Amino acid sequence: MNFNNKKYCIYGTGGFGREVLACLTDLLSSTGNNTKDNAVFMVADQFYDQPSVMNVPVIKESEFTADKYKVIIAVGDPHARKNIVEHLPKNTEYTTLIHPSAVVSQWVEIGEGSVITAGVIITCNINIGRHAHLNLHSTVGHDCNIGDYLTTAPGTNISGNCTLGDCVYFGTNSSVRQGARICDSVTVGMGAVVVKDINEPGTYIGNPLKKLEKK
């Protein structure tokens, strides 16, 4: 982690935002620091309704200045996360959090603003883009190339040699066969099994996997 004079700013006070706070707390505790003095939450002005969450101050987005904070976008939806990044100031600094219990080899590249939570395993020769979220006990196998704004819910298993586009979301306990290619803007439902390439954006569910058609 990059410790400097800036405080950590967690965008979002929802469930994942609070889980990110727990991750940050574990990281800071190893340095003798605490989240109360070194972190804030941030929300869009229209959602501001309380001055603190879990004893950590909450600021409005209109109060944010890039010279005071380094940001983690703790919003699960990949497209929402992308939109937030695009409208924050261009000089915003983003920080990457990797929980102490995560296993990440030295042969892994992870883009800025990403969050790697407890129990995650990322093996070798893997590139992961910016603002990725890998939730509890997800795994990524060797030689994967992953775009920006990935989200894995807990227990996702991505096998080796997979190629994933931007804004891909995996539901809890979903899995991906080795060598599969998935295009941008794909949602894979809870427990779904990807055994072949996905070339069209959309939501896919089940085993065998099928596209969920809009009604």
Topology:
Elements: E1 7-11, H1 15-29, H2 35-38, E2 39-43, E3 52-53, E4 56-60, E5 69-73, H3 78-87, E6 93-94, E7 97-98, E8 103-104, E9 108-110, E10 115-116, E11 121-122, E12 126-128, E13 133-134, E14 139-140, E15 145-146, E16 151-152, E17 157-158, E18 163-164, E19 169-170, E20 175-176, E21 181-182, E22 186-188, E23 193-194, E24 202-205, E25 210-211
Parallel strand pairs: 1-2, 1-5, 2-4, 5-6, 7-10, 8-11, 9-12, 10-13, 11-14, 12-15, 13-16, 14-17, 15-18, 16-19, 17-20, 18-21, 19-22, 20-23, 22-24
Antiparallel strand pairs: 3-4, 24-25
List keywords for this structure.
single chain; alpha/beta; Rossmann fold; UDP N-Acetylglucosamine Acyltransferase, domain 1; eight-stranded mixed sheet; 25 strands; 13% helix; globular
Summarize the structure.
The chain has 215 residues and is an alpha/beta fold. It has helices at residues 15-29, 35-38, 78-87, and strands at 7-11, 39-43, 52-53, 56-60, 69-73, 93-94, 97-98, 103-104, 108-110, 115-116, 121-122, 126-128, 133-134, 139-140, 145-146, 151-152, 157-158, 163-164, 169-170, 175-176, 181-182, 186-188, 193-194, 202-205, 210-211. The chain folds into two domains: 7-94, Rossmann fold (3-Layer(aba) Sandwich), CATH 3.40.50.20; 97-201, UDP N-Acetylglucosamine Acyltransferase, domain 1 (3 Solenoid), CATH 2.160.10.
What this model shows, in words?
- This protein is α/β, with parallel strands linked by helices and 215 residues long.
- It folds into two domains: 88 residues, Rossmann fold (3-Layer(aba) Sandwich); 105 residues, UDP N-Acetylglucosamine Acyltransferase, domain 1 (3 Solenoid), CATH 2.160.10.
- 13% of the residues lie in helices and 31% in strands.
- The protein is built from three helices and 25 strands.
- Strands 7-10-13-16-19-22-24-25 form an eight-stranded mixed sheet, covered by helices on one side. Strands 3-4-2-1-5-6 form a six-stranded mixed sheet, sandwiched between helices. The chain has a six-stranded parallel sheet with strand order 8-11-14-17-20-23, with no helix packed on it.
- β5, α3 and β6 form a beta-alpha-beta unit.
- The longest helix has 15 residues.
- The termini are far apart.
- The model has no long low-confidence stretch (mean pLDDT 95).
